[in-house]
Amino acid sequence: MVSTPGMAGPARGNQRGFVLIVMSSCMFLLLAVIGMAFDLGRVYITRNEAQVFVDAASLAAAQQLDGTAAGLDRARAAVKRLPNHWNLGANTFENVQVEFAADSEHWSAQPKDAAELHFVRVTAPDNHLEILFLRAVGGPETFTVPAQAVATTNPVRLTE
Amino acid sequence: MRVSTLRGRKRSQKGHAMLELALCAGVMMTCLAGTFQFGYTFYIYNQLVTAVGNGARYGAQRTYRAASAQDIERGNAAIRNMVVYGDAQPSNEVTPVIPGLKPEQVSVEWIGKEGSAPIAIDVSVHDFTVNAIFRSFTFEGKPLVEFPYIGRYAPGESER
Q1: Which residues of chain B does A78 touch, with a Cβ-Cβ cutoff of 8 Å?
Q2: Using CA atoms, how far apart are residues A145 and A132, in angstroms rounded to an integer?
C-alpha cells in the first residue's frame, strides 16, 4: 500500500508546502507575541515616564505662581528646564502645554489676569512611540502616549 | 529494486523533516529568547522608573535637614532606601522592590546653591545590570527623574 506509486505521488504533493503554511502562521503568531512583549512594554514604560514628568512639571510650575505675569513666565520656564526624558530616557518631551486656572475648571494657556491663578495643568501630548513589531501584524505605525497632571500652589505635605 | 528506492526516499523524507524541525525550532527559540530578554528588561526598567519617581517625589517633599554634612547624607540614605525598598527606614528582613538593586546604585543630587534651600532633586540609577539570562543590560544614569523641591528647609535641624 505504501509503495503504490499512484497513491504516494499526489499524497506527497499535498504534503509539500504544509510546513511552509504552518511555519508562516506560526511566525504571524510569534510576531504578535513579540510585538506584545516589545512594543507594549515600551508603551507602558513611556506612559510611566510621561506621568512622572508631568507630575514633576506641574509641581515645578505651581511653585512659581505668585499672582503676577512674571510668575506665569517662570512657571513655563520651570517646566522647560526639567531634564526628564521618555522612550527609555532617549527623547525629550516636545510641545508640552502649560495651562493655568483659578478654579481647576476654566483652563487657559495665556490667561489675562494672573492674580487669582492657583492651579497649573501640564499636558505632554506628543509622545509618539514608534511601533516596531505589532505593525507587521496589522498594528499602528505609531502609538501616542499622552499624560496630564494638575498641581496647586499649596500642595499638602504628607512627609516629615 | 523499486521497493529499495521507495525506502530510500522515505529515509530521505525523514531527514528533510528533521532538518525542517531543526531550522524552525532554531528560529522560534531565538525569537522566544529575544522576546523574553527584552520583555523582562522592559519590565525591570518600568519598575525602576516607578521606584526612582517615588524616591524623587519623597525627597522633594521631605524636610531638608542640613545641620551637618552627616545629616544631609542621612537624608540622602533615606531617599535611596525609598527607591530600593519603598521604605525610608526599612527593617533588616525587607527585600528590594527590584531584584538586585542596592542603595549604593542610587544617586541623589540636590540642585541649588550650597547653604540655601535646594531648588530641585535629581535621582538616578547607576551601574545597574539586568540579567535577562541570554544577555544582560546595564543602565548608567537611567532612569533620571527631577522633582522641584517643595519641602521644608531646616538648616539648623539634625536628622533623628
Answers
A1: 148
A2: 16
